[in-house]
Amino acid sequence: MVIVIIGKPFYTYLNYNFISEANMKPFMVIREPEAYQLLADETRRKILYLLRVKEMNVTQLAEALGITSQAVYHHIRKLLKGNMVEVVKEERTGHLIESYYRATAEDFILSHGKVSSESLHDRKLAEEETTTVLNVLKRLGFNLEFDEKDISQLVDLKARVEECCPTSRKPELEDKIWNMDELNLLMKVTASDFVSTLLMSEDEFTKQQADRKKLRSFLLSLVRKQKKITLLQSTP
User: Fold this and answer.
1) pLDDT tens series, the chain, 236 aa
2) Which CATH number is 76's domain given?
3) Are residues 120 and 210 in the same domain?
4) DSSP for 5-43?
5) Under 8 Å between Cβ of 125 and 40
């Protein structure tokens, strides 16, 4: 299972009135593969970030993003179809009726089995996210060096780990877990992982460990050799 969480908005510095959290779901689990294609587009991700902060109409979104209203309409229609945004009110301006939109949840969790290598949009999103994660690790002090080829290989290795165990995937159980109000987000992730482990066969467990080892070895290979030498020399 792949989980993608659309996190805190980067537009919070704008002078917006925040949407009450009581009026918005804390998160929404989406299983449709098309959701990856929606979120592969950077403009749609920006629209979602903005609509998590404030109800906005198309004109306001166009001004905030620096694009045409026609382009915003195009993206809004797709996000409406994907149940990621909703109309919350309509206001009449002259002869026109303006719709105001907001995100349907604070975070969107995509459960899609694996990041499909067959889908260009899915893969593009996975590679962008992997690149972001590795850059964050660099800021944390990990001396990593990687290129586009490394990112592509890392996405494949990660997908192999996540798709290894078909008998441990029970969508009906996952749906029940994600709908349990007594569990917070991290508890639901943990519960889902525990269920997968409990249902895994011995052969699947062995294969998963082997795939994880390959993933770890590849990550270690991205550490700059210069750094390793320096660390060895500084050891008394």
Assistant:
1) 444 445 444 333 333 334 444 456 666 766 666 776 787 788 998 999 899 888 999 999 999 999 999 999 999 999 998 888 999 998 887 788 889 999 988 777 665 544 443 444 467 777 888 898 999 999 999 999 999 999 999 988 988 887 777 666 677 787 788 778 787 767 877 888 888 888 888 988 898 899 999 999 999 999 975 444 344 444 44
2) 1.10.10.10
3) yes
4) B----S-TTS--PPPPGGGSEEEEEE--THHHHHHTSHH
5) yes
Residues 133 and 210 in one domain: yes
- pTM (two decimals): 0.52
Instruction: Give me the domain span that covers residue 222.
Output: 115-165+201-233
What are phi and psi for residue 181, nearest 5 degrees?
Answer: -70, -25
Q: Do 52 and 123 fall into the same domain?
A: no
Tell me, yes or no, whether 131 and 224 share the same domain.
yes
